[in-house]
Design goal:
Blueprint (H helix, E strand, L loop, with lengths): L5 H6 L8 H7 L4 E3 L5 E3 L2 H7 L5 E2 L14 H17 L10 H12 L2 H6 L1 H13 L6 E3 H6 L1 H11 L6 H11 L11 H27 L5 H7 L10 H32 L1 H9 L4 H11 L6 E5 L3 E3 L2 E3 L4 E4 L1 H4 L34 H18 L4 E2 L19 E3 L8
Helix pairs in contact: 7-9, 7-17, 9-13, 10-11, 10-13, 11-12, 11-13, 13-14, 13-17, 14-17
Length: 416
């Protein structure tokens, strides 16, 4: 069996720039028990089998619990009610069927292919606008100047969130994204900040939803707030607030990583950057390989609802389970020469967007944004070079990507 401290090493920020050697060691066992009591699923075959296993539950977040304030009214009445509601009405990525399926159905009725296709021209225009702003620059931070503002603007417009409120979301999203990090779920200080942040963003969304019902517009949030499913009726307000928060945060956090990881990879493989510049038709295949090679999300967590025997290991009931998707996407048993970046790779069944019933609902939008972004960056940046490699990374091990990606450039070509 592999070293039972390996996943703790994966979570260590010192290994954020390159966790893949640790994944290779973890893959010595398809299911690797760890010293902290968790079980890490590492190989492509094991992940493919277990993501469909109903004995693995997504409802693995600790119950909401506001810290004591010293105010009896809040501590004994108001906050316990909030905690009950918040625990019962999690975002649907933390829910199991049938609740998950019902909430996802509501979202998919609004998050339609036609709505995504209608965003294509707008995404292209935003990409060009952001690059036009850097026309005279000789250095840029790709995250601050491009990879963050693009998807956050897109998701705000898609949802119908006022653009002037965008500046408030960065801190909210960064804080609430810690819910994906196993250690942060048991850190009292982080939990307290998450509860405080959730209260603030929930109040904001509640007001926005009321406004959508009074003044309906052609946006996704209006549809969720006003339309009724033929079988399910209208989504309840508590679930609607949680869903709106999820779409706002997930709708840009992962795409920031996809674009930034993508450009970092291309700068480390300049032959492919040049190829994309001269032949943008390769972009769809290149994006799929990026999702395999440097995915924006490395793992998700689950909880075992019953004992699960698999590949000679028994996961006990109640044990935390880590689905290490980024390891499965570099499994040599599934992908020839898996540590090589190869946009011409055939049969590329990666886990870049997860899998099974929790497959990312925003995958088509993320692909659209990443393709528009990387094609334009390859075409318009003059002689881009990394100022530091590896770059500084974001704290989280699950949502893995550079916090900054500083590039030296010789200017930006005129747009279309």
């Amino acid at each position: 069996m592999p070293d039972p401290t390996l996943f703790a090493q994966v979570k260590d920020p010192a290994n954020r720039p390159d966790p893949y050697p640790l994944y290779k060691r973890l893959r010595e066992a398809p299911v690797a028990p760890q010293d902290d009591g968790s079980y890490v699923v590492t190989t492509h075959a094991a992940l493919r089998a277990l993501i469909f296993d109903p004995r693995l539950s997504s409802e693995d977040l600790p119950s909401a619990s506001h810290p004591r304030t010293g105010n009896p009214l809040k501590d004994w009445i108001i906050n316990p009610i909030k905690d009950h509601v918040r625990t019962k009405h999690r975002p649907f990525i933390f829910r199991d069927p049938p609740d998950h399926d019902a909430l996802r159905r509501h979202v998919m009725r609004e998050f339609t292919p036609a709505r995504i296709r209608a965003m294509h021209g707008r995404v292209d225009a935003l990409v060009e606008e952001l690059l036009d702003k850097q026309r005279d620059a000789r250095a840029i931070d790709l995250v601050d100047d491009f990879s963050y503002p693009l998807p956050v603007t897109v998701i705000c417009e898609l949802l119908g969130v006022p653009p002037e409120d965008e500046a408030r979301f960065h801190g909210w999203a960064t804080q609430l994204a810690t819910a994906l990090e196993p250690d942060a779920r048991h850190d009292e200080e982080t939990l307290g900040r998450n509860i405080e942040t959730f209260d603030v963003i929930a109040a904001y969304m509640q007001d926005l939803i009321r406004d959508k019902r009074r003044h309906p517009k052609d946006d996704l949030l209006t549809g969720l707030a006003t339309n009724a499913d033929p079988k399910l009726g209208r989504m309840g307000d508590y679930d609607l607030i949680a869903t709106a928060i999820l779409l706002l945060i997930a709708g840009h956090e992962t795409t920031v990583n996809l674009i930034t990881n993508g450009m970092l990879t291309l700068l480390r493989h300049p032959e492919h950057l040049e190829r994309l510049r001269t032949d943008p038709e390769i972009a769809p295949r290149l994006i799929e390989e990026l999702l395999r090679y440097e995915p924006p999300v490395h793992f998700r967590t689950r909880k075992a609802l019953a004992a699960i025997a698999f590949a000679g290991t028994t996961i006990p009931e109640g044990a935390p389970v880590v689905l290490l998707f980024a390891s499965g996407s570099r499994d040599p048993a599934r992908f020839p020469d898996p540590d090589r970046f190869d946009p011409d790779r055939e049969d590329n069944q990666h886990f870049g967007f997860g899998g099974s019933l929790h497959f990312c609902v925003g995958a088509p939008l993320a692909r659209l944004e990443a393709e528009a972004a990387l094609v334009a960056l390859a075409r318009r940046l003059r002689n881009p070079r990394l100022i530091e490699d590896p770059p500084p990374y974001r704290p989280g091990a699950s949502l893995r990507g550079p916090q900054h990606l500083r590039l030296a450039i010789e200017g930006v070509e005129i747009g279309r």
